[in-house]
Amino acid sequence: MFEFDLIQRYFRQQPVQRNDVRLGIGDDAAIVTPAENLELVIAADVLNEGIHFPVATDAAAIGHKALAVNLSDMAAMGAEPAWFTMTLSIPDSNASWLDAFCSGLYQLAAKYNVQLIGGDTVQGPLSISVQIAGYVTPGAALTRSGARVGDGIYVTGVLGDSAAALACINGEVDIDGQAIQGLQVKLDYPEPCVCAGQKLAGVATAAIDISDGLLADLGHILQQSNVGAHINIDAIPVSDNFRTYIAAGGDFNRALVFGDDYELCFTSPLAEPEIVELLKHCDCGVTLVGSITSGTGLKVTDSQGNVVNIDDIGFEHFAE
Length: 320
Ligand code: ADP
Ligand code: MG
Hints:
- This protein is α+β, with helices and mostly antiparallel strands.
- The chain is built from ten helices and 13 strands.
- The strands form three sheets. Strands 8-10-7-11-9-12-13 form a seven-stranded mixed beta sheet, sandwiched between helices. A four-stranded mixed beta sheet has the order 3-6-4-5. Strands 1-2 form a two-stranded antiparallel sheet.
């Protein structure tokens, strides 16, 4: 298939048609007419085979994940996603692979009403680069720099499923196939927290999406906000499948340091019941895991207050 036919077949017809797109795919560039009185939030993320997803990952999962990680960046900013472009490097134009890839991509695009408005297609090692833009009320975007002493530290959903899935796939831990499948859904089809992000815009003091592990990503908030934190390791939310992985000898700390969670970590002075109420229709769950402290250190303890040495769990100190 030539590039022209491939673009015609897979990218020209868009499942999402937005009113604020004046010219989509088919010309040298797209034209959008952004809503007045809103700010645009822009992000990009690339996925390379073998680095960001295992070789032989389902094409539908790759399509989903390429967009999901970008929607997750929009969520972390509190933005409403609108459009994306995509540069696709593929080794060959395999029709069944492209069909599956596009089904995963477009299903997620339709769910969040984001339109693919352009891109580029080249032959090369499998790599998908997505650039995304969305809207936010002026001044309401969530950043990493606003956390204040006394704020609660919250995470959405559960942590560690993707890490546990990889440990099982790599043969490090042996659990039954059904539990592995449950964990792998999170690795292959992460659900971006777009709903929670938008509800938190103008409410949370700081936010980040968890792509490199809670401790590392919270570390970015602490550094940019000039504050410290206390985390209660016993409060970290994990799934039943993750508990199955722990029971089989898996490492709990992977829920803190591994990443690929695509949940949100945010800070807020609001109490847990108010946050739970705010996000109750978002279908993600939310848990208070700690609090922002003065100084610049990150301290992890259990519920009894015993200190857990974070150097021992592979976390690179950012402070002191
Ligand atoms: P040009 O030579 O001007 O770059 P192309 O032939 O590469 O044009 O692309 C034709 C049209 O198809 C453009 O509108 C471009 O944005 C779109 N396009 C190409 N590849 C992709 C892709 N992977 N995803 C979305 N749109 C694409
Ligand atoms: Mg081109």
